[in-house]
Amino acid sequence: MGEDTESSKINHTFLRDYVTEADVISTVEFNQTGDLLATGDKGGRVVIFQRETESKGETEELGETGDSGEYNVYSTFQSHEPDFDYLKSLEIEEKINKIRWLPQQNAAHFLLSTNDKTIKLWKVSERDKRPEGYNLKDEEGRLKDISTITSLQVPVLKPTDLMVEVRPRRVFSNGHTYHVNSISVNSDGETYLSADDLRINMWHLGITDRSFSILHNNIVDIKPANMEDLTEVITSAEFHPHHCHLFVYSSSKGSLRLCDMRSSALCDKHTKQFEEPEDPGSRSFFSEIISSVSDVKFSHNGRYLLTRDYLTAKVWDLNMDKGPVETYQVHEYLRSKLCSLYENDCIFDKFECVWNSSDSVIMTGAYNSFFRMFDRETGRGVTLEAWRESSKPRAVLRTRRVYTGGKRRRGDVGVDSLDFTKKILHMAWHPSENIIAIAATNNLYIFQDRVNPETQ
Amino acid sequence: MYCGSGETGTELHCYCLCLSTGKRDNMFPKGTKRKFSDPGEEPVSSADQSQAASSAAAVRTLTSSYSLQRQSLLDMSLIKLQLCHMLVEPNLCRSVLIANTVRQIQEEMTQDGTWQIMTQALAAAQCPADRLVATEVLCRQTDAAAQAGQSPKPFSVVGLEEGYHAEEVVMEGDVETEVTMSTLSPVSPQLSSASYLAGPFGMGPCWEEEDDDGECEEDEEEDSEECVSEGEEGDRDTLNADSRTGEQVFGTFEIKHPAPPPDPALEELFSDVDPSYYDLDTVLTGMQSSPKMGPYDLLESLSSHGPTALSSSSSCRSDLNELDHIMEIIVGS
C-alpha cells in the first residue's frame, strides 16, 4: 500500500448543514454482504444505506468490475427513545451504542441495536405490492356503505412504490444494570451476547416466522462482592466468527480473556488470558488508563485478535497469550500530552478498530479527523483524513502527516494544531471489498478503492 | 512553575495550583520512573532514623517538582470523581480508571511518607465543619493516622434520593479558603492563574514535554511572583461573588448529616430491589454505608488551597436550568 497509489471516491451521503448533538453518529456497521450499511446516532435514530446495484450491461460498458454503486438512504427509523430510571433518578440515553446485523435468512433483514440498557431486534422488509379491491373498504380505507355493494370481488396484489418497513420484533430489556458496550451475534445465528461493564449476557434469537424464546443468563460476571473493590471493567466483547462456543472480552486493564462456553455455564474462569507484560521503563500514572482496551475484534479467519488501546493497535495470535504479535503506533506523539488529555477527558475516548476482508490491513481512528491504516505485511502505516473541506467527490484521498520532528513537509500538521474535538471513533470495512465507512461526528464518509476494488 | 518553597503543608498546596501560562516543567515526561526517589532524595525506610530526619526528607520530597505534579494530578482526579454529571449516569469505566489512578498516587505517597505529612497539614488547616455539601470519593484510607484529629462529623453526599447530583461543590468558611469548584470545562473564564483549565487548544495548560528545561526556570520564577499576587486577589473577589450565588443555588439542598439509618418501612418497600443498584450508587457517587474519614482529608485539601477553578455565572444558570428540569420530572409536569 503505497502512499499515493490508492484512489478513492468520496460519497457525501449523510451531510447536514449544522451539527446538533443528536446527529452525532455513534456506530457504523455493514451487513454480511455489504449491500447495507447501518448507522446509529446519539438521538437514537438508525439510518440504513443501501448500495445501488448497476445493471450488468452498464457495468461492462464502464469497464468496471462488479458493483461499484453508491450508497443511498434506504430507511430511517427511531430505534430508541430517551428513558428515565426512576429508581436512580437518572436519564437513560437513547444513543445507539452498537448495531449488529443478523445473517440473512430470507427476504427480510434483521439487525440488533442497543443503547445503554435495552437491545432491540428490528426487522427490515420491503414491500412493493399492495392489495387492492377490498370489498368492505374503499381505497382510502373508509368503510363502504354496504348498500352500495352489489358484487363480490377478490382483492388483487398490485405493484406499488417500494416501501421499506421497519418493525421492532423483540425488545431485550432489563438485562443490564450497567451500560451495554457491545453486542455480538454468534456464528450459530441463534444466539448473541451483550456485554456491559461487569456482566456479559447471552440471549437466544428465534427464527423470523415465530415468536422468540428468550434465554438469558450471565455468562460472565466480574462484579465484586463489594463495589469498592472494583478496579477493572469489561470494555468490549465478541464471539468468535466460526466457533460458536468461543468468545473474547477485553478489560480496562488491557487484558483479553478468551472464554469457552463448553467448559462451564458461567465463564468466570477464562480459557486463556492475553496480556502484555508492562514495560517498567515507561510506567507513569497514566499507564493503566492508556492500556485500557477500547475495542476488540476477531480477524475474519478467526486466528487473530485486533485490539485498540489509547495509543496503539495490537494484533494478537490466539495461540500466543504472552503478548501481541504486532503493535502499531497510532499516535505516539500524544504520549507526552497524556496529562492534558487526562484533564480534558480525551484519554477516555474509545476508538474502534477494524480488519479488512482479507485480514491484511487494519484500520483505526484518531483525532483531527484523521484515521490510520496499517498494512500488516509491510508494517507501514498511512494517515488519511475524513474532512469535507479537504476532499472533493471522486478525488484521490491525500495522505496526511503529523509533524513530530525532522524535516517538515508541506501539509504536515503540528501536534499542537490537532483538533481533539474531531475524533474518528467509529468505522466499518466492507466484508468483501475495499470500501470503508468512516463516521466523523455527524458526517458519514464512504471511501472506495477504485484501483483495487476487490480485496486480494 | 511552582512558586516559592514552603515549610508547612498548606503553603505547599497553594503552590500546587498556582500555575502560570508560561512554559512549564516537564510534567510527566516519557519514561519517567515512578519512584519517589527524585534526584537528591533518599527513600526513608529505616526505622532507626529519627522522626525529624524522616519528616525532613519527606518535606524535601514534597517540595520536589515531581511531588507537586503528583499532587496536582491527585487533586484533578478527585475533582473528576466528585463531579458526577447530573442527569445521566457517569461512565463506570472512566470512574474506575480515575479511582485507580487516585489509589496509585495514594499508595505511592503513603510509601514515601508524604501522605502522612499532607494529612497532618490538612488537620491543622481544617475549616469549620458547617460546610455545604461535600462528596465522598472512591478512595481507600490506607493511613489510619490520618483519621486522628479529623472532625467526627462526616459530610455526606447529596444523595440520589434527592434526585440529582451536585454539580458544584461549594464550601464556605474563612475568606481565604472560600472555594467554588465547578465542572471542569474549557469554557472556564477569567482565570489567568488558576489551575488546569485554560490552555492552548482547549486542553490543560501544562505538563507538555519541553525539550529545553533550562529555559523554563527563568520564566517560572518571574511568573511565580506575578502569580501569587495577582491570582489570589483577583480570584478572591470572584470567589466571594460566586460562592454567594452558589449558596443561593444550593442553600436548600445541603445535607449536614450522614444518611439516616434505614427506615424499616422503606426497607420493606424496596426489599425486592436488586441490591446491586445500591452498589452502583457507591461507585458512582462514592456514597458508602459507613462514612469514612479518609476521603475528607483529600477534599479538605482541595478547600484549603488557594484559588482554584471558579465557576462562571453561566454555569450557575445552567445549573438552575437543570434543577428546573429535575423539578419538572419530580413533580411530573
Gist?
The complex is a heterodimer of chains A (456) and B (333). Chain A is mostly beta strands.
Instruction: Quote the beta fraction of chain B.
Output: under 5%
Largest interface: pair, residues per side:
A-B, 53 and 57 residues
Report the count of strand segments of chain B. 2
* Main sheet summary of chain B: 2 strands, antiparallel
Shape of chain B: globular
Largest sheet of chain A: 5 strands, antiparallel
Average pLDDT of chain A, to the nearest integer?
Answer: 87
Run of helices and strands of chain B = HHHHHEEHHHHH
Question: How far is the first residue's CA from the last residue's CA of chain A?
Answer: 12 Å
Strand order, biggest sheet of chain A? 24-25-26-27-28
Strand tally of chain A: 33
Which assembly state applies to the chains in this document? heterodimer
End-to-end Cα distance of chain B, whole Å, is 52 Å
3D shape of chain A: globular
Q: Pick out the low-confidence regions of chain A.
A: 1-9, 11-18, 56-61, 207-217
Protein name (chain A): Serine/threonine-protein phosphatase 2A 55 kDa regulatory subunit B
Keywords (chain A): Repeat, WD repeat
Family (chain A): Belongs to the phosphatase 2A regulatory subunit B family.
InterPro entries (chain A): PP2A_PR55, WD40/YVTN_repeat-like_dom_sf, WD40_repeat_dom_sf, WD40_rpt
